[in-house]
Structures are given as structure tokens and as C-alpha cells.
Design a protein that fits this description.
There is one protein chain. The chain is mostly helical and 115 residues long. The longest helix is centred in the middle third of the chain and has 26 residues. The radius of gyration is 16 Å and the shape is flat. The two termini are 21 Å apart.
């Protein structure tokens, strides 16, 4: 499997965990702040276990095709895609058209960065 694809797949998986850690507690108003923080930390641990290998696999210093800046921009684009699905499916929120425009601008940044 190409290193760029391994990197992207690991970033997608890590972002699913991180988005869940950051936003799932919004569905649980009965959770106290300490509970929300504690459970979020537990969910975030697997995110780090995927994010670090993704960055190492993708970075040119470890044989990957990307610079650190490219990895960050790709990660942000993946975050927006994962978040959009999470907000729609889990939180039952609709994004505004302005959110879509902002997301497209970030996607444009990805294209510019990886050229």
C-alpha cells in the first residue's frame, strides 16, 4: 500500500477518535465536566496511537512523501470531513452554507499545499 494512502487512512481513523473525544459529550448534558473530560481523554488515547504513526509514515524524513506542513493541512481537511459527518449523523446538526464555503477554502489550501 502506498505510504500516502497509509498516512491518509491512519489520519482518518485518528480523526474519528478525536472528533468523538471533542464533541460527543455535547450529546450528554447529564455528564458532569469531570466525567466529560475523563471520558474524552480515554477516547483521545487511541487517536494519538494512530496520529503519531500517520505522521511518521507520511513525513519525508521517514520515507513518506509529505512535509510537516503538508501533513498538517491534510489532517485539517480530513478533520473537516470527519466533523461534517459527525455533526450531521451524531449531533443531528445541519451545517450552514457559510460553513460549507469555509470548508471548501480549506480544501483549496490542501490542493495548493500538495502541489
Amino acid at each position: 500500500m502506498p505510504r500516502w494512502l497509509v498516512t491518509v487512512l491512519l489520519l482518518v481513523a485518528s480523526n474519528i477518535f478525536m472528533t468523538t473525544a471533542w464533541y460527543y459529550h455535547l450529546k450528554k448534558p447529564g455528564w458532569g465536566l469531570a466525567t466529560a473530560i475523563g471520558l474524552s481523554w480515554l477516547i483521545a488515547l487511541p487517536e494519538y496511537m494512530l496520529q503519531v504513526p500517520a505522521n511518521r509514515a507520511g513525513h519525508f524524513a521517514h520515507g513518506g512523501p509529505f512535509t510537516a506542513a503538508q501533513l498538517k493541512i491534510i489532517q485539517e481537511a480530513i478533520t473537516l470531513v470527519v466533523f461534517t459527518g459527525f455533526a450531521w449523523v451524531v449531533l443531528k446538526e445541519k451545517l450552514r452554507w457559510t460553513d460549507g464555503v469555509a470548508f471548501l477554502m480549506v480544501m483549496g489550501a490542501v490542493v495548493v499545499s500538495v502541489l
